[in-house]
Design the sequence.
């Protein structure tokens, strides 16, 4: 049997359609607006999608394993506000960051345990955690805004480094948020496509029963995907707090979980599990970011923007369902 050609392998990849859709959008916007292709605007798009992209990489692991996580917006808020409060209390940067990240990882661990050993559907378990974590954030802050500055007690040298994480530029050009996103995406791609753990994630998502027969501990794999998701949601929340050093538990990250899931699904991941790539997720995140940016440049009202983003999500999920059905028939 002859090996398929390079073009056949490229054309057969699910990401190709997503990439072509992104190219078409970029070409259209480059002709319809004069500022879309400017370096300032493109870097702004990169910065704007970075936090969404960091969380979407984590959601890629969860969806491929056949699960879903609706608590990411609340985790994003609690971890970011928690680290900010610790810095205001006079903590050093590293301990405050580690505490925030551990908080996110712990929420992910609880989600994983409830969804596996607790025998709860992940949709229900994480929906409940969404409310619990948001409530904890409100109790922790007493519903008041958290502002990280020297007047509230932050050490000047700590505040400077903290703000650089969210507001700084690498080499004076590339936003630090975009640097974090690129690093997370690269690491996620290496883990998912080049390690035994990545293979197990696909195996469990494709068929948990078959994975168990093969000797894979399906529950452990799923728990780790939730921990990764919680860790990355915490990282995104901390970077958000560093970018705009103020937040409120009742509003920060509200509804963000829907954007995260949408970006991963637009990028080609299947809600049924077993299908998805980090490259596809990055393209999906860029599509949503470019679409939002293009609508703003076109002067489209924010209300119409929400309608159009919703249509893109519905179309992406419909394509996913139709393609899944065609593969199984």
Sequence:
């Amino acid at each position: 049997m002859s090996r398929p050609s390079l073009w056949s392998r490229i054309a057969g990849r699910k990401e190709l359609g997503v990439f072509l859709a992104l190219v078409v959008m970029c070409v259209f916007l480059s002709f319809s607006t004069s500022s879309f292709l400017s370096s300032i605007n493109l870097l702004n798009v990169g910065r704007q999608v970075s936090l969404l992209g960091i969380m979407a990489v984590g959601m890629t692991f969860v969806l491929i394993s056949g699960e879903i996580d609706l608590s990411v917006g609340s985790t994003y808020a609690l971890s970011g506000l928690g680290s900010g409060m610790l810095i205001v209390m006079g903590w050093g940067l590293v301990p405050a960051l580690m505490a925030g990240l551990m908080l996110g990882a712990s929420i992910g661990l609880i989600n994983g345990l409830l969804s596996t050993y607790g025998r709860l559907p992940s949709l229900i378990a994480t929906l409940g955690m969404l409310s619990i974590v948001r409530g904890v954030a409100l109790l922790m802050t007493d519903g008041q805004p958290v502002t990280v500055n020297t007047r509230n007690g932050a050490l000047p040298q700590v505040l400077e480094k903290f703000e650089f994480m969210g507001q700084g530029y690498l080499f004076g050009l590339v936003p630090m948020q975009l640097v974090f996103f690129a690093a997370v995406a690269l690491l996620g791609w290496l883990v998912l496509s080049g390690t035994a753990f990545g293979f197990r994630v696909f195996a469990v998502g494709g068929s948990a029963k078959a994975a168990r027969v093969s000797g894979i501990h399906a529950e452990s794999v799923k728990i780790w995907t939730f921990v990764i998701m919680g860790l990355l949601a915490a990282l995104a929340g901390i970077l958000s707090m560093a970018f705009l050093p103020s937040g409120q538990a009742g509003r920060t990250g509200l509804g963000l979980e829907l954007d995260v899931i949408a970006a991963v699904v637009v990028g080609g991941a299947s809600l049924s599990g077993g299908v998805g790539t980090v490259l596809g997720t990055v393209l999906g995140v860029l599509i949503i970011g470019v679409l939002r940016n293009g609508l703003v440049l076109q002067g489209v009202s924010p209300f119409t923007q929400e309608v159009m983003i919703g249509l893109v999500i519905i179309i992406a999920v419909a394509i996913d369902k139709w393609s899944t059905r065609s593969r199984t028939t």
